[in-house]
Amino acid sequence: MILDLIPDDEQQLIEDSLRGFLRDRLPVARLREANAHGGAAEQALWEDLAGLGLFGLGVSDDKGGLGYGFAEEALVARALGAHLVSPSVLAQVLAPHYAEDDGLREALISGEARAAFADGNGHAIDAGWAEQLLVLSGGAAVLADTASAGLGDSVDGLDETVELRALGKRPEAGHAASRIGLMLAAYLTGIAQTAREMAVEYAKEREQFNQPIGGFQAIKHMCADMAVRAATADAQVFYAAVSGDAAPSPVGEVAAARLLANEAAIENARANIQIHGGMGFTAECDAHLLLKRAHLIAALGADRAGWRAQVLDARIL
Fold this sequence. Notes:
The chain has twelve helices and nine strands. By secondary structure, the protein is α+β, with helices and mostly antiparallel strands.
């Protein structure tokens, strides 16, 4: 079976339109300001995001959505990751798939009801406005009412640009989370690509010994490695997405996507900081934002041992 991993004209238009919106309204640099943290910038644009059709993109026509597939949702998730958009936006894109009530699904698609992620460790992410929590635990997920879960006080986390709140009760996850795992992987490939682009641009501008540092072999190798990691993860994500358009994505392919995307995002973000040198460790540079967000998303529903076993099983069979 031959799969086409290149977006068609309609898919490219979806991604280009979203990236243009995010570039103008939600640039990564916004996160330097505390008033944009905790998803505040995204919540201010919630009606606009709903108007773009994001929240019902992958939901079938007969359930009130636009009827697109895994590939289109993955393109959206990748764009969200590239701009470090609050994870609550991705949760909103995915939540309608896990709504068992038609009224709730319609409210989520319209943006009237809002969703956010929560992890198996009992932390909700940017959930201050959310009525629903998409709770992940290993390879399973469930959509739960925020009031019944009970949001506690804020807790400190590595990524200071998001708000973490403890859950009073952890709902049991019961539905397969393959779709969520694939979209988290796509989000991470967006981070990997942004880190690569940021490093390359800086390497072109920063000069030492009267020449751009991008001319030095060590920097060239680092940038090349970043490009390979990002491209490899991206190819695996969209292979899994296209494979699953007619049915649920193969578990082994999604597991491979998570493993590759986690590594690409974290390692590219680290390399980006290193290429920026001393400035890369400062708050004045956006490089640290990518690394922190990569760690946060990589930890959501993390099950590295399980993923490796699924990849091995898929390859053996």
